[in-house]
Design a protein that fits this description.
This protein is of the alpha/beta class. The protein is built from 15 helices and 15 strands. The longest helix has 21 residues.
């Protein structure tokens, strides 16, 4: 996934410390000696996948209240008010980290509460992440108001600003769940501290109506531009309801975009003009959204739907070819997070975030074109090995840095608490 989109039919990747020191056709293999050698004969070796938007800790709420209209306000916010805690965030993040790592995700961008707890789980498992502490106008588990959320974020940023694999960030939930003053303050602080800002943008009818009323009829993107909140530090999730003027503003301000196909079509919100944004050179990468929205945290599961739905809405079988999908999952996603200088491709000098895809599984036989095989045939379970920062974190589907069984059992125990709180109690959250 370098600038030339090089594919080696037979190849070699050499890693020293946490960096890639060579990517070649393998004919120079005798020039390298290593303590560890992975024989990936016949398999696909590629950059680790990058999930540009999720809420990892919500794994413990997965599959609750499916198909409920206005689910965010009628169900999710009340559910979180009852059950979000440090423990819940830790347990859910541990489970989600394992799911992502086993699906080839080496870096992810997250927005949630108690984000320092998420950071500790990321540190332990060995992944890379951009972690945004939520800022929202109403009382939540870790802050009474948006100002307290900002202070929590500042403390989090101070704690993790020098971490080699974790980038702390602000995460104002959305324009309509924060005031203009809060959005401007977060923008100013992000520039001052040189950290990302993650936000849901141009996602829903509720948002469009609220922002139009606040701004005299402007779109959410135009409003954010007017108040000075569009900057290169911003990563905007969803970006469904945008026109050409909005896209031009996003490009002008060098904003990153997280495209979450499955979550958007499941919620019937619409299809983002992601293909147009990609064609126009915007920074756009794939995201899964949270596990209550898209249900799985598998970027590989996004591939198929991203390719097919864009063909459908554009009525063009040639639209969104497989190589463009893989771009969105790797180097494109790295660009969305402004991390393309360090991750997203297999190139000399980049960080060693590498995955190996098994091509011997029945669903992957035969492979005539690796891009087509990945997009239309692969499952997350085809990921064989996952390496992050030069360290093997999963080998032959076995987790090496955490106890997968213990993590699953703790998540199941918490699920019992969820079941008693919102199901068996007879209480219906509305």
């Amino acid at each position: 996934m370098d600038k030339d989109r090089t594919v080696f039919e037979q190849g070699l990747v050499a890693v020293k410390g946490n960096q890639i020191i060579a990517v070649t056709d393998g004919k120079d293999v005798e020039n390298y000696k290593a303590k560890t050698t992975i024989d990936a004969e016949g398999d696909i070796v590629m950059p680790g996948l990058i999930n540009t938007h999720t809420h990892v800790s919500m794994t413990v709420f997965r599959s609750l209240a499916e198909d409920v209209p206005d689910r965010q306000y009628r169900y999710i916010f009340p559910l979180e008010k009852k059950l979000v805690s440090r423990d819940m965030v830790r347990i859910g993040a541990q489970l989600g980290n394992v799911e992502m790592l086993k699906g080839g995700v080496t870096t992810y961008a997250d927005m949630y509460y108690f984000e320092d707890e998420v950071a500790r789980t990321v540190d332990k498992i060995g992944m890379r992440a951009v972690l945004g502490q939520t800022v929202i106008i109403f009382p939540v588990a870790d802050a009474a108001n948006a100002e307290e959320g900002i202070q929590y974020a500042l403390n989090f940023i101070e704690e993790y600003k020098d971490h080699p694999r974790i980038t702390p960030a602000f995460a104002p939930h959305a324009p309509y769940t924060n005031s203009t003053e809060i959005l401007q303050k977060v923008t100013e602080l992000s520039l001052q501290h040189n950290v990302p800002v993650m936000i849901h943008l141009a996602e829903s009818d509720r948002e469009i109506e609220a922002i139009a009323e606040r701004s005299g009829g402007k779109s959410p993107v135009a409003y954010m531009a007017d108040i000075g909140a569009l900057t290169p530090n911003l990563v905007a999730a969803h970006v469904i309801y945008v026109d050409d003027n909005d896209i031009a503003l996003l490009k002008k301000h060098d904003v990153g975009i997280a495209h979450n196909m499955r979550a958007n079509i499941k919620s019937a919100k619409g299809v983002s003009p992601a293909m147009k944004m990609q064609q126009q050179g915007l920074r756009i990468g794939l995201g899964t959204d949270g596990p209550m929205s898209g249900n799985t945290l598998s970027t590989i599961d996004e591939f198929n739907q991203v390719a097919k739905v864009h063909k459908l809405v554009n009525k063009d079988r040639a639209a969104m070819p497989p190589i463009k999908v893989i771009e969105m999952a790797t180097i494109g996603a790295a660009r969305a997070l402004h991390m393309e200088d360090t991750i997203g491709s297999l190139e000399k000098g980049k960080l060693a975030d590498i995955i190996v895809i098994d091509t011997k599984a029945p669903n992957m036989v035969p492979v005539y074109n690796p891009y087509s095989a990945l997009v239309y045939s692969a499952y997350a379970t085809n990921v064989k090995h996952t390496i992050v920062d030069g360290n093997m974190l999963m080998e032959d589907r076995n987790m090496l840095t955490v106890d997968e069984t213990a993590i699953r059992e703790e998540a199941l125990a918490f699920a019992d608490k969820v079941r008693k709180t919102v199901i068996e109690s007879g209480e219906i959250i509305q």
